[in-house]
Amino acid sequence: MEVHNVEMVMSAVRPSQYPTDNLPEIALIGRSNVGKSSLTNTLINRKAFARTSSQPGKTQTLNFYKVEDQVFFVDVPGYGYAKVSKSAREQFQVMIGEYLAKREVLKGVIQLVDARHAPSKEDIEMYQWLSSDEMGGLPVLVVATKADKIARGRWNKSESTIKKALQFKDQTTDFEIFSSETKYGKDIVWEWIEARMLD
Ligand code: GDP
Known about the structure:
Elements: E1 6-12, E2 25-30, H1 36-43, E3 62-67, E4 71-75, H2 86-102, E5 106-114, H3 121-130, E6 140-145, H4 155-166, E7 173-177, H5 186-198
Parallel strand pairs: 2-4, 2-5, 5-6, 6-7
Antiparallel strand pairs: 1-3, 3-4
The structure holds guanosine-5'-diphosphate (GDP).
């Protein structure tokens, strides 16, 4: 999709605050610093639209970006801060649980992992949950970010390490390697999103 128009429409912590436009939604999720804002900005051709790395302790909200009046990108706050309190973690789980498991217009989830490392425990738990029966076959795209930081000859190895650790389910999950530096993978990620919009 050629993107000209993006609006940050709203932040939500509960279902009554979600948009009512009835447009398809694509959620983006990953641990803090994995490159989620960079991926979002690459997809929408902006340098700094999505804010980078929110700070631990800051209010964690779902942020809805309306793209070309056709689809919402839903920025799910980064997980994996060791230091957040138990109650903050529980609030986060309720918020994303309500959204990801129940939202009817949610057409797919892009889960980001770092191409350089084996997925973390939280990455694995998140993937297991996203691909569980509870989610009813929700399409997931695993995007391995920061691919420019590893030699191209190691991309296959990175992919197999990630898939093995996640116990990757080919039935409902796709995989793409990506770099916001070089834009590698941008078209494929867009193709995946556009296909989900038609599902
Ligand atoms: P977020 O917390 O997941 O939104 O992560 P950001 O998008 O803010 O990225 C975190 C850091 O990683 C920033 O310093 C980015 O410049 C850097 N980064 C993100 N994506 C890439 C990438 O594809 N390649 C490289 N080399 N750096 C990246």
